[in-house]
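pls design
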């Protein structure tokens, strides 16, 4: 009688096992949180975790490797950082507001899980644009196939395209009048404010409420105004409202540029905010965390506050950022900020070797809402 065996096994043993040795337990693939994180490494959600079903459970059970594993580890690190008393700054690049990130970001702000924002001028204004004209936005399903003539037709109709979404020009003019009124008033009285403060004034006045086309709960700017968190906006002049402001000065409607505070004044305010909010090491709480969505000026501007405080202002008691996560589809590269790995920031005096660091190379419009949903316990 011939005994048939599976290649690589001994007769009488199951494939993939060693004779005389019982199979061991399955490998623990729980995302690992760095040892120095406030969260204990390799800690799994307990039976009484914040959600036993929904997004959180799905990620815990299915996001086990590669970028998906990093997503869960970053979410747990974020949660642990805030639970330990650390503050969190979120930076927004690209067109995250037009991508409707506000649907989850606003909830994060209102639940005290975001304490400051650094964003581009586009994100600052586009959150309100979508509130005021969201139902008038047009979707271009086959946007990759648009010809130059198709693009011209959109321009002729006053539709400004951002990838698959077209923003009507009329909404920009809707906000323009209210901003110019406030800039003129400030110029007359010698008052000076940051770009976000003028928008907060408009939001808090209530004059836009009747014009909202989407629920106010979905606006991160409205949430930021309600919670009174600072919104730093480096490079504000590279935006529609920044362009409108410049044109208003050039036309003579405003006497000069002084009613809007400068970028260096924003750096000063951000640095002071950081120094005031970095927790003391004596109480065991972490320093301010940094959650970066995309790359560019909104991220690099804000993260530079720490080396500036230490190296230029000689505030040697300044602590490094206490958590860092970046989500970007930029390839890891030589010379590209958005593709720089977190460890490079150690050499610039921004992060410590023990800072919990996460880098997710993926589409932020997909990944970031999942991380926020996880932290919110959805």
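designed seq:
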């Amino acid at each position: 009688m011939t005994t048939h065996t599976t290649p690589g096994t001994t007769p009488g043993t199951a494939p993939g096992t060693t004779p005389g040795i019982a199979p061991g337990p399955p490998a623990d693939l729980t995302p690992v949180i760095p040892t120095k994180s406030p969260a204990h490494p390799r800690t799994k959600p307990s039976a009484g975790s914040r959600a036993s079903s929904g997004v959180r459970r799905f990620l815990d059970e299915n996001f086990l490797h590669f970028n998906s594993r990093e997503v869960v580890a970053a979410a747990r690190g974020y949660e642990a950082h805030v639970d330990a008393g650390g503050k969190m700054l979120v930076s927004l690049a690209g067109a995250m507001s037009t991508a409707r990130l506000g649907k989850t970001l606003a909830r994060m702000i209102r639940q005290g899980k975001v304490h400051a924002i650094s964003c581009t001028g586009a994100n600052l204004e586009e959150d309100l644009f979508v509130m005021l004209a969201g139902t008038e936005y047009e979707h271009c399903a086959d946007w990759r196939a648009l010809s130059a003539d198709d693009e011209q037709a959109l321009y002729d109709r006053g539709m400004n395209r951002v990838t698959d979404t077209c923003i009507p020009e009329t909404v920009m003019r809707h906000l323009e009048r209210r901003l110019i009124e406030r800039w003129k008033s400030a110029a007359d009285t010698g008052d000076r404010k940051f770009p976000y403060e003028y928008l907060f004034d408009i939001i808090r006045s209530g004059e836009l409420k009747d014009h909202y086309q989407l629920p106010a709960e979905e606006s991160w700017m409205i949430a930021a105004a309600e919670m009174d968190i600072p919104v730093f906006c480096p490079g504000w002049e590279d935006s529609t409202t920044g362009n409108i402001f410049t044109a208003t000065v050039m036309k003579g409607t405003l006497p000069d540029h002084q009613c809007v505070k400068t970028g260096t004044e924003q750096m000063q305010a951000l640095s002071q905010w950081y120094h005031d909010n970095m927790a003391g090491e004596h109480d065991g709480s972490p320093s301010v965390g940094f959650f970066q969505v995309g790359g560019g000026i909104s991220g690099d501007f804000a993260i530079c506050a720490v080396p500036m405080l230490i190296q230029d202002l000689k505030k040697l008691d300044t602590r490094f950022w206490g958590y860092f996560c970046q989500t970007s589809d930029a390839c890891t590269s030589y010379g590209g900020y958005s593709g720089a790995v977190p460890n490079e920031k150690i050499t610039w005096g921004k992060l410590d070797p023990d800072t919990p660091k996460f880098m997710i190379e993926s589409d932020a419009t997909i990944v970031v809402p999942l991380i926020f949903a996880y932290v919110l316990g959805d």
